[in-house]
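stage 2 :: seqdesign
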């Protein structure tokens, strides 16, 4: 796949984030670049995350556009996974974790006390670092979500959802003759595509991916990257990656995190060829991280 440097018209930046007050202890707190996009799918404002007393994310402001792949990069421990988990309230499952600020999905605050997180986590699905199929058949791995979310009214409905999800995840041809075999029997790359099929099966709007290729070989990685590019037509994708090459290949926008601060965000091409912040430059040129 060629590096994707095209801009998506729906993510045209509207403003530069200059209205966020810097806090003295954090010289680098003010994000450089355009945090806003036109008609965002998700919109994060003043997001802080604490584990007990320790602050892991500092007042992050960021919009996520429709049909874009946004890559989140930065050194280990800078808060990429923590921030990603805020987007579908996965941090709720960690006892010591507290999230403040506002995160909107289609203009609805996902932290609203009345909001049910079960449908939220279908709308904003997640794919993890290590493929984690259920210890069930390939068919059941994909059918489980639509069944518990009541998305199918009959067995034939469910069959259609399973087939189309496996198709969209680029796995159908490889598994169509062995749908009743265990998902865990597939190769690592196939398992990750099965997990993507499982996420797609419940009709998400956003797919979060936390280093989805880090356990895969280069060929399986290339397949997932191709798939991510195709999935962008239908979904919004936020991906954490430790590979700058991967971020450059698959994303339209890139966000650089450092010690819990969102240092810089911009078009991927600009971030990698003309970073505005010294910390971003140090990281992408390999001087740091
Ligand atoms: N469950 C947790 N409990 C306490 N601290 C955590 C937990 N998860 C992450 N942290 C801390 O939050 C910071 C950010 O971690 P993380 O989001 O995993 O970073 P990254 O994904 O960029 O490597 C780190 O200092 C890490 O130690
Ligand atoms: Mg992480």
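stage 2 :: out
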């Amino acid at each position: 796949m060629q590096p994707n440097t095209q801009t998506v018209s729906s993510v045209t930046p509207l403003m530069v984030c200059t209205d966020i007050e810097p806090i003295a202890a954090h010289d680098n707190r003010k994000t450089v670049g355009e945090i806003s996009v036109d008609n965002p799918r998700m919109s994060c404002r003043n997001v802080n995350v604490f584990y007990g007393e320790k602050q892991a994310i500092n007042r992050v402001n960021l919009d996520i556009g429709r049909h874009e792949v946004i890559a989140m990069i930065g050194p280990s421990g800078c808060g990429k996974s923590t921030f990603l988990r805020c987007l579908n309230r996965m941090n709720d499952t960690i006892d010591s974790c507290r999230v403040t600020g506002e995160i909107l999905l289609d203009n609805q605050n996902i932290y609203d006390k009345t909001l049910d997180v079960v449908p939220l986590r279908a709308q904003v699905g997640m794919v993890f670092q290590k493929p984690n199929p259920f210890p069930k058949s390939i068919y059941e791995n994909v059918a489980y979500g639509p069944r518990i979310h009541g998305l199918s009214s009959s067995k034939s409905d469910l069959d259609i959802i399973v087939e189309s999800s496996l198709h969209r995840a680029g796995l159908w041809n490889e598994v169509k003759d062995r749908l009743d075999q265990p998902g865990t029997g597939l190769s690592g790359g196939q398992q990750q595509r099965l997990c993507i099929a499982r996420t797609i099966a419940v009709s998400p709007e956003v797919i979060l991916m936390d280093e989805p290729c880090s356990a895969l070989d280069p060929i399986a990685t290339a397949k997932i990257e191709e798939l991510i590019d195709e999935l962008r037509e239908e979904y919004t994708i936020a991906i954490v990656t430790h590979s700058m090459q991967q971020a450059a290949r698959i994303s339209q926008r890139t966000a650089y995190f450092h010690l819990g601060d969102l240092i810089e965000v911009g078009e991927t091409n600009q971030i990698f060829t003309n970073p505005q912040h010294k910390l971003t430059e140090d990281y992408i040129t390999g001087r740091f991280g």
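stage 3 :: structure notes
- The two ends are 26 Å apart (CA to CA).
- The pocket of magnesium ion (ligand 2) is lined by residues 80-81, 240 (CB under 6 Å).
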